[in-house]
Amino acid sequence: MSVNKVILIGNVGKDPEVRYYDNGGCVASFSLATSERGYTSASGAQIPDRTEWHNIVLWRGLAEVAEKYVKKGSKLYIEGKIRSRSYDDASGNKRYVTEIYGDTMEMLGGRPEGSSSGAFPPPPPAEAAPQKPKTSTIPESGAPIQPDDSDLDTGKGDDLPF
Questions:
Q1: Could you give the number of structural domains in the chain?
Q2: Is there a domain that residue 141 lies in?
Q3: What is the pTM of this model?
Q4: pLDDT single digits (tens) 77-122
């Protein structure tokens, strides 16, 4: 078995570039910066911050969301897989590109600076699910009262030890 999974949290380096295809599909691409903080080593040497730039590619619905809401400076959580490809540039030189094909994207942080409304989609309306009334009765037999846990998640199928 093998796994190709990447999780990134970083800041968008440029507005997404979105291309639409004849079949109705679309793809968005943009750069994402992730940074590691610098530090001072035990010997006193200063290690500077290190920033890595990642090429992000989003398809279909995620590309449309990125086009509407992702802007330069946005903080994003991206989950996806690494893909490498090569191509020949205009001079005939072979170029290699490593990209992150995003499967999941979440916008982090608050609204962008200077945006009072409309920058993010409104939250979906809460579904008015019928609630089971919480009632308890004291048995006349003097038996202990058993709590009603019918609405609790039993965790069956969970591999967690707690």
A1: 1
A2: no
A3: 0.64
A4: 999 999 999 999 999 999 999 999 999 999 997 665 555 444 444 4
